[in-house]
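The aim of this short unit is practical: by the end, you should be able to scan a pair of folded records and say something sensible about each. We start with the first protein, listed as its amino acid sequence and then its structure tokens.
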Amino acid sequence: MLKIFLILNILFINLWACKGGYKSCRLKMKNSSSVVKNTIQIPVSKNKLLIYSRETPNKKIIKYDPFLSLYLVEDKKQLTQTAIKRLLAFLK
């Protein structure tokens, strides 16, 4: 009984996290610009990105994890304040 209760709570928490349904979650991902050309790009600081990609990115690589396919790269294009605010709003 406890297992069913926990499973249902986790299900409802996941459904509540995306109140507008699948379309709103997809729109948030699109607006955050975190998925680009089959890679996931997460800004770490103003000029550094954490990239998950199976292919080597065309940017200056600072660190690389071959087991997880994670790259810490230096990005010459610095993030603007609006891009950082969009990302933070997406993560909330």
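Turning to the second protein, read its sequence before its tokens, just as you did above.
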Amino acid sequence: MTKDNPGFIQNLNPRDRETKILECDCGWKGTFAEGFETWDDDGESTVCPRCLSTVAQIWFPTIQEMLDSGDPSEVRHAELRDSAH
């Protein structure tokens, strides 16, 4: 799975993690936070607590997206993140 080709998994805005109701093929419904959350280098996922299928993904911004944002705190975070790799 990639950011440009997420497949059946919903891409979610971080602001919606507590409010948007997600639905799994097995019938489970709940928010991102009500699922089992997992993290990796690219973002966060939530897994259905009933069938363990990945339901939604929140992608972390790329370093370039952070640099292009114009937000000084995002630019600094990008510089720190880039120097850690």
